[in-house]
Specification:
alpha+beta; six-stranded mixed beta sheet
Amino acid sequence: MDYLVRGTAADLMIRAFAVDATETVEEARLHHDTRPVVTAALGRLLIAGAMMGSTMKGNDDLLTLMIRSDGPIKGLTVTANSHGEVKGYPLNPDVEVPRKYKGKLDVGGAIGPGTLTIIMDLGLKEPYSGQIELQTGEIGDDIAYYYTKSEQTPSAVGLGVMVDTDLTVKHAGGFMIQLMPDATEEVISKLEERISKMPPVTTLMEEGKNPEEILEYLLDGMDFKLSTEGENSSISSEGETDAPRENYRMPVCFKCNCSKDRMLKALATIKKSDLQEMIDDGEDVEVVCHFCNTKYKLTVEDLKTL
């Protein structure tokens, strides 16, 4: 089962997240029948969405990550809530680009120049929205740049998707490390050194490391502790614990909340004349959900109820 963990280090100067999202990204691949480089790109954004969504407090809070670009993928959209549920889709799932060194998928080349827009609907009068120019198109670098520039929170983000020879997702996961305002130069230097020597996330996953162990590896010697929102209990990297390790895991999954009723409500927003024209045609209408590719057949009687 996919899951996410959160924690702190260096006497609360560091906030940390890590996630195993292998099954989640594989389900997205199946829904959209993506080619490997698109699987990797969409997967990275889903992984980022899961970690970023976990920082929201409200049960109904919603996060949207939207990339629009000049590369062949053209764009990606992901939404996430505060419960580890994510969904997303590419504008073009059928993209092939030359691989980089050692067969590495060229996500940045497939995305190309563009923008990243992040929208947070926190139940306020207006959603919060921020936008940056893509720095590399590799997504992890772009998310880190967004936090540093738009929220003044220096961050390091590592995202990885390993696609197997049969095109399935072998490993997918990531980490996000954020420095708090009171972080000292000593802590910053130590963290920078650890990150500079860290292998790719998928390499650690291939070695069998889970999200807890990835953070312990990254934050070794910095008093890393797992945490949950609203709880005082913790687990240190030395293994001292006052609660089972599983208590700190947030389940992560691909989940779409589309339905026939939702599709009807969306269709109700079009012009009345266009709706009447569809009714006059006398033919059933097929509507497809962008996020999961589920098809819904709407009959003439369904349209008349609108």
